[in-house]
Amino acid sequence: MENNKRRIAILGSTGSIGTQALDVIAQHPDLFEVELLTANNNADLLIEQAIKFKPNNVVICNKELYQKVFDALDSHYIKVFAGIESANSLVQAQDIDIVVASMVGFSGLEPTISAIKAGKAIALANKETLVAAGSIVTSLARKHNVPILPVDSEHSAIFQCLQGEYTEIEKIILTASGGPFREWSLEQIANATKAQALKHPNWDMGAKVTIDSASMMNKGLEMIEASWLFNLPTEKIEIVVHPQSIIHSMVQFTDGCLKAQLGAPDMRVPIQYALSYPQRISLNTERLDFAQLKELTFYAPDKERFPAIRLAYHAHNSGGNMACIMNGANEAAVAAFLKEKIKFKDITDIIEKTMGKCTFVPQPTIEDIYNTHAQALEIANSLIK
Ligand code: MG
Fold first, then answer.
1. What is the mean pLDDT of residues 154-167?
2. Of 181, 241, 315, 344, whose CB is crowded by the most CB atoms within 10 A?
């Protein structure tokens, strides 16, 4: 890697991806430097991270927590700002090379667009950004000549398989763990509790993505994310359930050859690859022992038990703002499920109904996308109460 350290901003530094990104950075202080950390509400952890990594700036998005963070960091010569608008402008600072976009949900869209406009490389963990505004975000990235480096494990796997390849892709195979309800009946899934849905068998992730994994909406969102990242139509993206989560995804080429990326499930691997790309650097993750692995199994996902997959293909094939509508309704429904206001089955019912009621815009502008998200939340929330 070049002599100069890569200077990194982490949007959402106190979340699951943010903390693991800081773990990677801590292991390679010779290669990486933290310039900006932002968090929504976790002031205590933000303060702790700032004292350890010494960024120039931190942003606490919840303005009520500003004084607390300021008081804690003032003597450390770290500048403290409040509000999402501060994150949107500070992410454009000259001394930042890479922006890790790891905020949760639609809220990641605005700062990611702001970073792209300033020409920053994006390490994208926030799949909702591409689901809601894929056409706008990818064309902006092309215009500003900005790489979008995938952090999602499946997309990182595909990206790794594509290194050195210049020919057409026949299809990509997105692997899915199947989540905690993989073997449950329709009836059992319908009545699953919050605690059951939050228990993911393989991956350690935040609450939103863990619920999305349980409904398999996560795989639907990832299918749309893959379509934008790799410029492929939905017919060329196949979802396969692979309960062991050892193969993180595959690419099939026109000669019938397949490439797969394998490894122990550890989010630090794709996070680190996005930060060190095109180099690989050392990581203290578990090594696979093939003699111990015994078996890798695969089967097609069940769209009856997991209607989210059907909804995601329908949304993306409809084009326009439909995936944005689906995403907004999903965010509202998942939040309501986490507050135990609705049953698990209601999540996809609410999404489907919202997709039927929201105003369809065939060629949305960015303003249309923000309006669509607000309308989808409003309709979904009206169905929740
Ligand atoms: Mg993933």
1. 97
2. 315
Residues 85 and 199 in one domain: no
Query: Does 136 lie in the same domain as 15?
Result: yes
pTM, two decimal places? 0.96
Of 84, 119, 81, 85, the C-alpha closest to 99 is 119
Residues 17, 95 within the same domain: yes
Where are the alpha helices (H) located in the chain, listed in sequence order? Answer: 16-27, 43-53, 66-73, 84-90, 109-117, 127-143, 153-161, 186-190, 194-197, 207-215, 217-229, 268-276, 290-293, 307-318, 322-338, 344-357, 366-384
Compute the distance between CA of residue 58 and CA of residue 10 in angstroms, rounded to an integer. Answer: 10
Last residue of a domain, one of 285, 318, 351: 318
CA of 35 to the centre of ligand 1 (A): 26
Could you tell me the CATH number of the domain that includes residue 42?
3.40.50.720
Cβ atoms of residues 379 and 354 within 8 Å = yes
Q: Please tell me the total count of domains within the chain.
A: 2
What the block records as the tokens of 120 is: 């920053």
Q: Are residues 71 and 190 in the same domain?
A: no
Domain that holds residue 117: 6-150
Shared domain check, 191 and 72: no
CA separation for the pair 112, 99 (Å, rounded): 8
Q: Is residue 1's pLDDT more than 90?
A: no
User: What is the Å distance from ligand 1's center to 220 Cα?
Assistant: 10
Give distance in angstroms: CA of 196 to centre of ligand 1.
20
Residues 43 and 133 in one domain: yes
Separation of CA 127 and ligand 1 centre (Å): 9
Identify the band that residue 294 occupies on the pLDDT scale cut at 50, 70 and 90: confident
Same domain, 72 and 109: yes
Whether residue 291 is contained in a domain is answered as no
Could you tell me the distance, in angstroms and rounded to a whole number, from the CA of residue 270 to the centre of ligand 1? Answer: 10
Distance 172 CA to ligand 1 centre (A): 14
What is the reported pLDDT for 382? 98
64 and 128 co-located in one domain: yes
* Span from the CA of 211 to the centroid of ligand 1 (angstroms): 13
- Give long-range contacts, CB 8 A cutoff, 24+ apart: 355-358: 355/311, 355/314, 355/315, 355/322, 355/325, 355/326, 355/329, 358/321, 358/325, 358/329
